[in-house]
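Why should sequence recovery work at all? Because a backbone constrains its sequence more than one might expect. Tight turns favour small or flexible residues, buried strands favour hydrophobic ones, and helices have their own preferences. The token representation captures these environments compactly. In the example below, the structure is given first.
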């Protein structure tokens, strides 16, 4: 099953890309800020905290993973219930996912629970908004498995759903909750907190997520899903001639790497008033690539290349250029003549896939300055015997050894 392969891939390639921060920093910097009216926020928070206190007072311990999901779902329902709200809502899925979630690009993965953007139907990579992994015991193997399964699901969701710029995740072991942020740039986990003792923190986290809009939850506003049953997307390109919309018809090439993602689709331009292809529109190629901040775009590189070729072609003595010094024999005359014909009238452009239009998409958050690398790798076994008793400590590298803060 591909799930195992993805987990090993996460182990090997993502350890150095995951940082840690305090959950208070995470909530203020990474989590969406609830935009409901202040009175509405207060009312829903009070109801949610009271419901959480009631559920945890009856029995502060948990007997199985579904018990945790059930109580969290009741708290989410309480938050959603006091009065009508406009905007986006998320529901906590009680589906323990006894069958695998299938990725449209192939492969499967399993999750304990999730926040989803619809109430019913099967779980898909496109409707799992916040994956949640739960273990009833807080021990070494349980924590490690939880983290690997979450990261495995995140990798497949972000590879499969081209709209995702970043994604939040949650892991729970017994009474402790850890919040996660995964993006193309970096990933961050929080130090865990006891959500039974801190129901106000739990409700604040859930409020931030269930009422967030698509953009705040990591969806690119320039890409939309055509259908929930197929992998067709609509790209909006804000180019030099104004917004243009393109429907993907099939994938030409996709580099399925978590951080550096490049996708190439065959697309057709849509009518600006409908979702139907424009009359007479021909299939073209659309390339979607993530770039480091400050990197030149492919169009900028091509424009510089074309300028250099144009300057070369306009030089009447181009045959004497050093780069052609190896073509001086009589037998090379036909080659040079053919090359000369290519240089005339910019017919050399026929040798390139010329970029017609382009636009720059969203920029994702930079790593918070209040983060640190952990002493122990996030996903691998700790080989440092000095810290072997606390293999998942979230202590800072620069700090002296100390008891694990339940990270």
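From this structural description, the recovered sequence reads:
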């Amino acid at each position: 099953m591909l799930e195992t392969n993805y987990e090993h891939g996460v182990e090997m390639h993502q350890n150095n890309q995951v940082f840690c921060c305090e959950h208070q920093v995470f909530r203020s910097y990474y989590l969406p800020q609830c935009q409901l009216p202040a009175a509405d926020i207060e009312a829903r928070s009070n109801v949610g905290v009271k419901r959480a206190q009631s559920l945890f007072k009856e029995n502060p311990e948990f007997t199985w993973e579904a018990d945790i999901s059930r109580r969290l779902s009741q708290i989410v329902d309480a938050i959603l219930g006091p009065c009508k709200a406009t905007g986006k809502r998320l529901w906590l899925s009680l589906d323990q996912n006894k069958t695998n979630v299938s990725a449209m690009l192939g492969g499967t993965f399993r999750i304990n629970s999730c926040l989803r953007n619809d109430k019913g139907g099967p779980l898909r990579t496109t409707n799992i908004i916040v994956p949640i992994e739960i273990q009833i015991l807080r021990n070494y193997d349980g924590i490690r498995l939880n983290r690997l399964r979450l990261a495995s699901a995140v990798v497949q969701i972000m590879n499969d759903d081209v709209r995702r710029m970043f994604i939040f995740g949650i892991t729970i072991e017994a009474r402790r909750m850890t919040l996660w942020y995964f993006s193309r740039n970096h990933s961050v986990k929080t130090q865990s907190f006891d959500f039974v003792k801190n129901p106000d923190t739990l409700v604040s986290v859930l409020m931030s997520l269930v009422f967030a809009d698509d953009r705040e939850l990591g969806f690119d506003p320039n890409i939309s899903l055509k259908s929930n049953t197929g992998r067709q997307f609509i790209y909006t390109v804000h180019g030099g001639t104004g917004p243009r919309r393109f429907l993907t018809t099939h994938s030409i090439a996709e580099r399925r790497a978590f951080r550096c993602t490049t996708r190439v689709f065959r697309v057709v331009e849509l009518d600006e008033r409908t979702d139907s292809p424009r009359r007479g529109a021909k299939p073209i190629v659309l390339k979607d690539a993530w770039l480091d901040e400050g990197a030149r775009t492919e169009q900028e590189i091509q424009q510089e290349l074309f300028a250099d070729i144009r300057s070369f072609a306009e030089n009447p003595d181009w045959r004497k250029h050093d780069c052609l010094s190896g073509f001086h024999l009589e037998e090379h005359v036909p080659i040079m003549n053919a090359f000369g014909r290519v240089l005339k009238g910019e017919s050399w452009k026929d040798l390139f896939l010329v970029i017609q239009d382009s636009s720059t998409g969203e920029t994702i958050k930079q790593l918070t300055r209040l983060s640190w690398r952990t002493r122990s790798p996030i996903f691998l076994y700790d080989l440092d015997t000095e810290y072997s008793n606390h293999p998942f400590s979230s202590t800072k590298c620069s700090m002296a050894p100390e008891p694990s803060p339940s990270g």
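A few observations help interpret the result. The chain has eight helices and 15 strands.
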